[in-house]
Design a protein that fits this description.
It comes from Marinobacter nauticus (strain ATCC 700491 / DSM 11845 / VT8). This protein has about 300 residues and is mainly α. The chain has one domain. Helix 3 crosses helix 7 and helix 5 runs antiparallel to helix 13. It starts with a helix and ends with a helix.
C-alpha cells in the first residue's frame, strides 16, 4: 500500500508543480519562523531547529508502530498521502526555465540571468558569470532541487516510511530555510549525511536511464566520492549519462556554434528527461521491493 500512496502523491505533486501551487519551502519557512526564535548570542544553536524536525518524526514513527500493532495500519495512509504531497515538489521551476530558455534563444544573457538568479545559491547570486558558467550553475541548482524534493524523500520513504521521509526533508529544509544563517552550515552537514546514500544511488541510476557507456567513464570520479558534495556527484554522473554535450556548454559551442542559441533549452530538456527516466527506474525498484515484502 505504501507504493500506492507514493504513486498517488507523486501524480498529485506533479500536477501541483505544473500549476505552481503548494510550495513546500513556504510551509517549512513559516513553521521555522514561527517557532525558531532564539535569544541573542544563540544564533549558532541547532537544538531548537532539530527538535522542530525530530519530534514530529518521532511522533510519526510512534503512530506507525501503534497503528500497526493495533491492526489499523490503513488508518495512517491518508496522513501519509498528505505529508508526501507536501514533502515532495519543486514548483516554480517550469515557468523560470521557460523564461530562461527563451532569453537564451534570443541571446539576451542578462535577461536569462535575471530569471534564474533567485533559484541559485546565495553565494552565486549577482556574480558576473559567463554564459557557460551561468548555465552550469542553473543546471546544478535544478538537479539538486529535484533530488532533495523528490528522490531524497522517496528513498527514505521506501526505506523507513513516512517518519524517515519527514526527517530527511526536514533536515534539508533546516539547511536552507532556518531563520538564523549562522546555524545553517551545521544543518547542512546533517543534510549532506542523510543525502549521501540516495545521491550515490541516483548517480548510478543515471547510467541505467542515460548513456551507459559515457556514464561508466565518469562514475569512477564520484563513486564512492566521500569528499564530494551532492551537487558535484550528480553533475559529473549526469554529464557522463547525457549525450550531445548537454552539460558541457564550452565544448558544445566549439563544435556546434550555429546551434548555440538553442543550447540552453535543449540542455535543460535533456536534464529533465534524464531525471524523469531515473524516477521511473526508482518506481520500478520500489515496486520490486514491495513485491519482495521488503517495503
Amino acid at each position: 500500500m505504501s507504493l500506492v500512496v507514493f504513486l498517488i502523491a507523486y501524480v498529485i505533486r506533479r500536477r501541483l508543480d505544473r500549476a505552481d501551487h503548494l510550495a513546500g519551502d513556504e510551509v517549512w519557512r513559516n513553521w521555522f519562523h514561527r517557532w525558531g526564535r532564539v535569544e541573542a548570542g544563540q544564533e549558532r544553536s541547532v537544538w531548537r531547529g532539530a527538535l522542530l524536525v525530530v519530534l514530529p518524526s518521532l511522533a510519526l514513527a510512534g503512530a506507525w508502530a501503534l497503528s500497526s500493532e493495533a491492526g489499523y495500519r490503513y488508518a495512517l495512509y491518508p496522513l501519509e498521502l498528505v505529508l508526501m504531497v507536501v514533502l515532495m515538489g519543486a514548483p516554480g521551476w517550469r515557468k523560470v526555465l521557460r523564461a530562461y530558455s527563451d532569453a537564451w534563444r534570443r541571446g539576451d544573457m542578462q535577461a536569462a540571468w535575471h530569471h534564474v538568479q533567485e533559484r541559485l545559491p546565495a553565494s552565486e547570486r549577482g556574480a558576473a558569470l559567463s554564459p557557460e558558467a551561468m548555465h552550469l550553475s542553473v543546471s546544478r541548482a535544478l538537479m539538486v532541487s529535484v533530488f532533495e524534493r523528490f528522490f531524497l524523500v522517496v528513498f527514505w520513504y521506501a526505506v523507513g516510511g513516512i517518519a524517515l521521509a519527514f526527517l530527511a526533508r526536514g533536515l534539508v529544509a533546516l539547511a536552507g530555510q532556518w531563520p538564523q544563517a549562522a546555524a545553517r552550515e551545521r544543518y547542512q552537514r546533517a543534510a549532506r549525511l542523510i543525502g549521501w546514500i540516495p545521491s550515490r544511488l541516483l548517480s548510478c541510476t543515471f547510467g541505467l536511464a542515460g548513456d551507459l557507456a559515457g556514464w561508466s567513464r565518469e562514475i569512477r570520479k564520484v563513486f564512492p566520492g566521500f569528499g564530494k558534495k551532492t551537487a558535484d556527484v550528480l553533475m559529473i554522473s549526469a554529464n557522463g549519462s547525457l549525450t550531445g554535450y548537454a552539460l558541457d556548454p564550452a565544448r558544445f559551442s566549439e563544435l556546434h556554434p550555429e546551434e548555440w542559441p538553442d543550447f540552453g533549452g535543449r540542455s535543460l530538456s535533456a536534464i529533465r528527461d534524464l531525471l524523469n527516466r531515473s524516477m521511473l527506474v526508482w518506481i520500478c525498484a520500489f515496486a520490486l521491493l514491495v513485491i519482495a515484502g521488503m517495503a
